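Example record

One chain of 468 residues, shown exactly as stored in the release files.
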Amino acid sequence: MKRFVFTFGFLMVLISSGILFFQWMGFTTESAGESSVIEVNQSYSIIHEEDKFQVAQTIHFPSIIPSGPLLIKWPEGAGNFTCKDKEDNKCLTKENGEFYVSSLNQDSQEITITYSLKQLTKAESVPLRNWYPVLSGVSTLNTDIQLTEKSLRNGKWIAGYPTSNHKKLDYIDYYFFSGRGEPSDLVWSKESWKESGSRSVKVLTEEGDPVGFDKLDTFESADGFVTVLITDKINPFKSPHLIVISEAYGDQLKRIKQSLLYQTLSSKDEDAWLKELAVSVLLNETPYSAKPAWAYKQLKNGLSPSQWDDLRQNIKNRSVDSDMFDEAVSRVTGFRCTFFAENVKGNEHPLLILKASKPMKVNRKPIQLSYISYKQKEYIQFPEAVEALGIEIKELEPGVYFTSVEGNTLRFYINEDYFIYNEENYGLLGKPVQTIGDTIYMDIHWYEKLFNAEVKNKENAIEILKGM
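Predicted structure tokens for this chain:
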């Protein structure tokens, strides 16, 4: 009997252990699947001769190459694409006009991509910007750049990294740059540069110490490094690692702080624009690039000052992606935000339309109506919200609606800043009824005032009550 009890107990322990093991394996597999960011190191070999840059990009994966294909976005003007893994297997495919990288050999830990760029170099300076491809789902930790120069030998290439070396040989110039994060922009110039700076900022000038840079310690960063060229002979530009400015005053100095803060944030390489947006939100400064500048404007117009301050607190010291931004905006507004997810899907200029995540009720009865916040005002779906009150409303012609309330006639014109009340024109500063996105909405203020309704945004529901 004792042996039976012991055997039974031992079997139960084994079974329980097995269940726990498989649950753990399922958890870890699921967790691995949910972790969509692949951290990599990259090295580039660039050979420049005349107007051609031949580039070999080697991507070092931490363990094995992902099984799924990675979308690759080439730099503008690139051509002659190839991709091979360590065993010389081809790993570049093209589907529906887009290129993907994948390897049949999953044990390989690196792939090499090659391509060429053409750029005119007969000038006093040659900026090489946005010269590298971007892979989806990848976050670059460190980058090495080796550059072999065969033509421009009477000047010098400059990158934004802390490590840089230059050797002048008989027939070529050889450069090596190394730093954290994605590849740095590069610039070649004939000028002779004088160097100064601090641990986090290298400053290159044509003559003497730059005015306004006597307190470089104020730009110290534990993680970042930026190189600043002060010259009026190169068109100014800003990038995460390399900045060109014409003078060391005022707003131009802000670019250093922006670049250093940018480098403290993490994201997939394809989400670099979201890091630029996050920096601008944290510093209350409009971004330079078009895509984050559009998103910044939408946020500024769509959030109240207090919500804006809360948003800044919500994105500090965080990994940046579209989900993080959507969740942060939803958290501070109480409305559901999908603005950044829509940006990822390719919508070029989406509007920040925040949708109510609560159920709707009219006179305590559940109803399906769209209720949104847009540019700090709340709107309800039109004309459905009017009909929900039991009021008949007719569309006289496209964009023109007619109804009557207690003997008073109302006529609305979509996207116009007036309405007709008892055949009198009431001009307004805003549009009482307008198209937002692909839906027609009415401003809640006019909905309550004209239709004797009360809208209550409660904790668990949005309720509309018809006045007596």
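Notes: Residues 1-8, 10-35 have pLDDT under 50 and may be disordered.
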